[in-house]
Amino acid sequence: PPLLRPGPPDEDSAAPRAAAPDARPIGDARAVEPLIWALGDGDEQVRYAATWALGEIGDTRAVEPLIRALGDEQVRHAAMEALAKIGWAAAEPLIRALGDERVRHAAMEALVKIGQAAVWPLIQALGDEDERVRHAAMEVLAKIGLAAVESLVKDDREGSTGVAKVAVEPLIRVLEGRDLINLVASGGPAALKLLLGKRVVHPSYGRGVIEKIYREQPPAFVVRFENPPDGKKLRVVPLKADTLELE
After folding, report:
1. pLDDT digits (tens, 9 = 90+) for 157-207
2. Whose CA is closest to 61, among 37, 88, 84, 33?
3. Which residues pair with 222 in a beta bridge?
4. Cβ–Cβ under 8 Å, residues 99 and 121
């Protein structure tokens, strides 16, 4: 008989935990369909074990059934982890699920777990006709963080679609810090231009606004400071790791 894999611990019972068939003794490919079928089992722990096993196998046939399993409170977390293990192949189906109220939050968390591999499909989703999908995609990109911005900046450098230019602006508003400002400043002309007019903070001169950018290496910003200690409000500030942060 096939080996058994444990389900989640049952704190209220001393009985052995339920299990789903282990895929490996009978071959991963042949185990996928029975495991998908087990996702509908009446026993929570069988469903949990099947979800875990499908994540371990990583077969793309399991993606849609696992997304449906996000609506099952008892195995939701396991389904998120399984989809994250499948990775980029699960990204686009998960993005489509962002329009479904029943699984949207869990789908977002799974996309965050997938991380950088989901960035480009998420960027594409910023142009989706469904407003709920667009907003959810932006929120996921913001949670993924600098990996998302790095992909956007790379897209700008390569002169790709205008989707990246649309996305960088709101991500700048969401993400803060000197790492971001350096990353964006290393990008192409459009990314640099987006920094014009942005409020920044300098450790010595305080708050100010970027009025001009010199595209040198490293770039330098002309910043108008509000109340610098020496009274000199307009300064050229080289972009270094310890100079400017977005406010």
Report:
1. 555 555 555 556 556 555 554 455 655 655 556 566 667 888 888 888 999
2. 33
3. 212, 236
4. no
pTM beyond 0.70: no
* Closest among 198, 199, 123, 109 to 154, alpha carbons compared: 123
Nearest to 183 by CA among 132, 241, 234: 241
| CA distance linking residue 102 with residue 209, whole number of Å | 43
Contact 241, 182 (CB under 8 A): yes
**Are 183 and 212 in contact, with CB atoms under 8 Å apart?**
no
